[in-house]
Amino acid sequence: MSLIQIYQCLCDETRLRILHLLQDGELCVCHFQQILEEPQVKISKHLAYLRQRGLVESRRDGYWMIYRLPVRPCPELDANLACLHDCVREIPVFRRDTDRRARLRARLAATSPICCTPAKPKGKKKALVV
Amino acid sequence: MSLIQIYQCLCDETRLRILHLLQDGELCVCHFQQILEEPQVKISKHLAYLRQRGLVESRRDGYWMIYRLPVRPCPELDANLACLHDCVREIPVFRRDTDRRARLRARLAATSPICCTPAKPKGKKKALVV
DNA sequence: AGGGAATATGCACGGGTAAGAATATGCAAG
DNA sequence: CTTGCATATTCTTACCCGTGCATATTCCCT
Questions:
Q1: What's the pLDDT tens digit per position in B55-104?
Q2: Which of A75, B39, B109, B114 has its CA 20 to 30 A from that of A31?
Q3: CA angle B10-A1-A69, nearest 5°?
Q4: How far is CA A74 from the centre of its chain?
Q5: pLDDT of residue A51 exceeding 70
């Protein structure tokens, strides 16, 4: 992973928002959709872009794909993510994302599922969680 | 100047090298040419790109255009330049640029001119410096 | 005024990329 | 093995960008 590639990943707002959210822990695609309020294809493609360049890692969990920052990020990525964290502190979009994520977390804590429930679960919820 | 614009500026190697050099003080275009060993048009266009987005400022001094980092950079730019400085410390191209700049400086200290001498000066040197 | 030096700009071309619509894939439950 | 859900991929369109060639601009000196 080169420094240039890192900057190429950072120069799009959607990707910045994704990386910023991931700094607070892993997320699945449907949660990105809920928080960012962007179409699925857009989010999915930016996640693929980031994954191909090694800025995020993914794993599957049943229906869902869970994305996270690299477990062992290279020093350049680490430094730039820290810098990003500082820079966005005051920017409304990013604060909004953080807030929406917190509220989403609260909602999830109240119910059982780890990830979002399918649109028409019909009581499948519990089974899905296991 | 937005954060995205900063990252857009940072995602090209030539521009990274330019910004890295400017962290050590202002430079004219012909010095960039000597240090980076890239064609004039390439350097000039990248400098224009950076200037249009507010990452560098320029002033004219006789024959020469002198470029520098903004006198009062915004916090985001400041943070990212510091981050860049850390990140490139070990990268050969950037070390080479630093070395070449130091050697250029030594050469200039030995002679009088502030900037490089025209190709065929014919004794105009002293007059140019004043 | 005119020449020459340093630098900038216009034009052209190839390549990457962002976005959306449509479609495909992988998974789980019945 | 079919259905429904979450996610990925393909295709297309439009745009921006990096580069090089040629030319223009701006300045200094005579």
A1: 999 999 988 999 999 999 999 999 999 999 999 999 999 999 999 999 99
A2: A75
A3: 95
A4: 19
A5: yes
CB atoms within 10 A of CB A106: 9
| The pair of three-digit structure tokens given for residue A101, joined into one six-digit string | 């994520």
In a 13 Å sphere around the CA of B129, the CA atoms on its Cβ side amount to 12
Question: Distance (Å, rounded) from C-alpha B74 to C-alpha B2?
Answer: 10
For tokens 């903004």, the residue is: B70
* Fold that domain A3-105 belongs to in CATH: Arc Repressor Mutant, subunit A (1.10.10)
Q: Which residue has the tokens 């959210």?
A: A21
CA atoms of A44 and A9, how far apart (whole Å) = 14
Q: Does B83 sit within 8 Å of A3, measured CB to CB?
A: no
Choose among B4, B86, B88: nearest Cβ to A11. Answer: B4
Domain B3-129 carries which CATH code? 1.10.10.10
Shortest Cα–Cα distance, A31 to chain B (Å): 24
Give the rounded distance of the alpha carbon of B130 from its chain centre. Answer: 23
| Nearest Cα residue to B64 out of B129, B16, B17 | B129
In contact, B109 and B103? CB cutoff 8 Å = no
Would strands A64-68 and A27-28 be described as parallel, antiparallel, or unpaired?
A: antiparallel
Map tokens 């001498």 to a residue: B117
Domain ranges of chain A: 3-105
CA pair distance A31, A15, nearest whole angstrom: 15
From the CA of A32, how many Å to the C1' of D1?
33
